[in-house]
Design a protein that fits this description.
Layout (H helix, E strand, L loop, with lengths): L1 H14 L1 H6 L3 H6 L1 H17 L2 H17 L2 H4 L2 E2 L2 E2 L4 H21 L3
Antiparallel strand pairs: 1-2
Helix pairs in contact: 5-7
Length: 110
């Protein structure tokens, strides 16, 4: 299994994807017309097609992305130590997101 994952890990390290994601300019992205206009068009198209699953997944991903960059989530690790009082709420958010996805894909059928 390690032989299979080695090229993928090498690719991730060679392209510096992790650092690029950490250095995203959120305010610049939210005010960039080249990002916002296609996003709005996509949301309007999904509203027209009544693709509720796609809309929920999109907003769930955006919400989790915003939550992971929030001061609350960033304060989980201070000086290399995990803050145990913040683990349960963050785990609750993750379980809630998984619960929504399970409901959309397995319980609710179109």
């Amino acid at each position: 299994m390690a032989d299979f994952l080695a090229p993928i890990i090498d690719f991730i390290h060679s392209t510096n994807i992790i650092e690029q994601i950490r250095e995203v300019d959120y305010k610049g992205l939210a005010t960039n017309a080249w990002f916002i206009v296609p996003l709005i068009i996509l949301v309007l198209y999904w509203l027209y097609k009544q693709a509720v699953n796609n809309l929920v997944i999109l907003f769930l991903c955006i919400g989790l992305w915003l939550f992971s960059g929030s001061p609350y989530a960033e304060g989980m690790i201070i000086n290399g130590e995990l803050q145990l009082d913040k683990v349960l709420p963050v785990a609750g958010v993750g379980v809630g997101a998984i619960g929504i996805l399970v409901y959309l894909f397995f319980i609710r059928s179109d």
